[in-house]
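help with this record:
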Amino acid sequence: MVMHSKLTRFWLIRHATVAREALAVLYGQRDVPLCAERLILDAGRYAYLGSSLPRGARWLITPLSRTKRTAEAIMNAGYGVLEPEVEPDLIEQNFGDWEGRPMVELAADSMAHPFWPVAGDATPPGGESFSQLRWRVGAALERRAQSHLGGDVVAISHGGAIRAAVAHAIDLTANQALSIAIENLSITMLEYHARGWRIVMLNEHSFT
C-alpha cells in the first residue's frame, strides 16, 4: 500500500490479559502483571500481530509494564526487536480512590454505565473522568500525528485509552465510547489525514 505523504496511521493494540486476581478489581493505572498462562495460550495471536503490523513503524508503550511486556511478546513472535518509546498520555484512565475496588461493587452503583462500572461523566475521587481521558488521549494523537506525519505508529495501550482515541476520531460522547468493545491483543487502526480522522479497523483480532 502506498502511503500518502499527509497520512499517518495509528495501530492501537490493547495489552494482553492481566493476571486473574487483577481482573476482579478496577485496576486502572495500577501496574498489574500479565497472566502467565494466557501468554502461552495466546502464542498464535502474538505471531499474527508479529506478521501483520507494519515494518518501520514507530512503537509506543505507556509507563505501565503490561504494555511493555505485550510489545516484547509481539516483537519476539516475529516482528523483530526494537526499543519502544514511552508515551505517558496514552496510559489508562486514572480511577483515583476507586482503583482496587471490586468490579461487582462498582457495577451495582447507580452511576454505572450499561457496559462499564464507571459512567462516562463520572469523576472518581482523586482521578479523572472518561471525558478528561478523551481529551488527554486526543491531544497525544494530534501531537503524534504531526511528529510522525506520513508514517505508521504502533501503540500498545489500554482499553479505555483506545476507546478514547476512537471517541476523539469520530466525536463520540463518553458514554457512546464506553459501549465499544476493545479486546485484549486486538487492533484498532485510525488514519489521520489533513482533512480529518477516520477509523479503518476496530477491535480486529485473530482467534488462532
Summary: The CA atoms of residues 45 and 207 lie 7 Å apart. The longest helix spans residues 130-147.
